[in-house]
Amino acid sequence: MSDEGAQRAIEAAWDAGIRYFDTAPLYGFGLSEQRLGAVLRTKPREEFVISTKVGRLLRAGAAAEPGQAWKGTPPVNPVFDFSYDATMRSVDESLNRLRLDRVDVLLIHDPDQHFEQALTGAYRALDRLRAEGTVRAIGAGMNQAEMLARFAREADFDCFLVATRCSIAAPRWSCCRCVSNAESRSSRAASSTAASSPSLGRTCTTTTSWRLRR
After folding, report:
1. CB 78 within 8 Å of CB 90
2. Which of 15, 51, 124, 214 is the most buried if burial means most Cβ atoms within 10 Å?
3. How far apart are CA 209 and CA 6, in angstroms?
4. 3-212: CATH, from 3.40.50.1820, 3.20.20.100, 2.40.50.100, 1.10.10.10
5. Strand 105-109 to 49-54 pairing
6. How does residue 67 score in pLDDT terms, banded at 50, 70 and 90?
7. Nearest Cα to 114, choosing from 90, 80, 78?
8. Could you give phi then psi for residue 142, rounded to 5 degrees?
9. How many CB atoms are closer than 10 A to CB 117?
């Protein structure tokens, strides 16, 4: 897709009423953040919610990640790193690509083989950014629910994004609640985000950003 095509797609989403946008360094190896930011910079900042992710740094000369080879992307490859320092660098680099002064939600991205480092490194960094008011909600985004449930038990997360796994095909996790409706202490930041953006509750239901409950 060309830059112009991406711009038209994002503008069409905006015109259709979409106000929650999710991205990540992995998507297009930085292109997603660049293209999304280019459009959102022209919109009133208080009218949209944006999330991005941490856990992969984009580095020239790094070995290609299996299954992540794409045409037309910048000459970099993602490198897994869930340490505290790498997380802080990742946030800075995402803001530079987006050319925004802040994001609303930060998610730990695909820590399937890195649970301990994600909890002791990335989570600690995100918790600090939330406490400082730099970001309003923190969470994790994965293709599985089991590890997200583990994160929910062991730390104070606000939200989780489960890719294609929250459905009637998985009855164990079929009882879900959108983060904007969560009632526990750990959902305060997400609830605050929802209160300041009337569209967040609606868009959460279509982007599978959920808090799991048994």
Report:
1. no
2. 51
3. 23
4. 3.20.20.100
5. parallel
6. confident
7. 80
8. -145, 175
9. 19
Q: For the segment 159-184, what is each residue's pLDDT rounded down to a tens digit?
A: 999 986 555 555 554 334 333 333 33
Strand spans (E) along 77-156? 77-80, 105-109, 137-142
Q: How many CB atoms lie within 10 A of CB 104?
A: 23
Tokens 């890719």, located at residue:
163
Q: What is the dihedral of CA 169, 173, 174, 176, to 10 degrees?
A: -150
Catalytic residue chosen out of the listed positions 20, 27, 84, 123: 27
Please, is 180 exposed, middle or buried when counting C-beta atoms within 10 Å of its C-beta (0-12, 13-18, 19+)? buried
Tokens representing 61 are 């000369």
For residue 164, the 8-state DSSP code is: S
Distance CA 52, CA 94 (A): 8
HSE on the CB side for 133, CA within 13 Å?
Answer: 0
